[in-house]
Amino acid sequence: MICLVLTIFANLFPAGCTGVHERTFVAVKPDGVQRRLVGEIVRRFERKGFKLVALKLVQASEDLLREHYTDLRTRPFYGRLVHYMGSGPVVAMVWQGLDVVRASRALIGATDPADAMPGTIRGDFCVEIGKNVVHGSDSVESARREIALWFDTKELLCWEDSAAHWLYE
């Protein structure tokens, strides 16, 4: 019961369950799932020291995708993006850690794979911007909105990470 209350509080105010750590939303897009890159992407986040608090394989509805990408609705590629993201399964995840939004963006790499540095997910696995393998929240506010869109509060787990004392002061 206590963990459930903490999980609800953590979804509204991420520090509630973790002290000072924030949460971010990451999704392996259909091309990443089809190319069998899910394990590699999870491995990179785990090696960085982030804590996985939610994960699921979903076939996203058009309504969910339109809401997720609402900020891009005036862009010429919006329709193609929504269609593409609905073309196959997506692995939706929530990661938690110190400055996780900014650090995740660095792990993922630039949106355009041509600009992504080697060693980043997109720098290592992507060629074209329309097939860039993974989505990551671009701000704490976006992360909160995206997490709430993709996950029910009860799906966000509050658990003690035994490695935390080796990662944080």
From TrEMBL:
The keyword tRNA-binding does not apply. Residues 21-158 form the Nucleoside diphosphate kinase-like domain. The keyword Metal-binding does not apply. CDD domains: NDPk_I (cd04413). PROSITE patterns: NDPK, NDPK_LIKE. One of its GO terms (molecular function) is kinase activity. Its cofactor is Mg(2+). Its EC number is 2.7.4.6. It comes from the Eukaryota. ATP binds at residues 29, 77, 105, 111, 122, 132. The active site is at 135 (pros-phosphohistidine intermediate). Keywords: ATP-binding, Kinase, Nucleotide-binding, Signal, Transferase. It catalyses: a 2'-deoxyribonucleoside 5'-diphosphate + ATP = a 2'-deoxyribonucleoside 5'-triphosphate + ADP. Residues 1-19 form the signal peptide. PANTHER family: NUCLEOSIDE DIPHOSPHATE KINASE. Belongs to the NDK family. This is Nucleoside diphosphate kinase. The lineage of its organism: Eukaryota, Metazoa, Chordata, Craniata, Vertebrata.
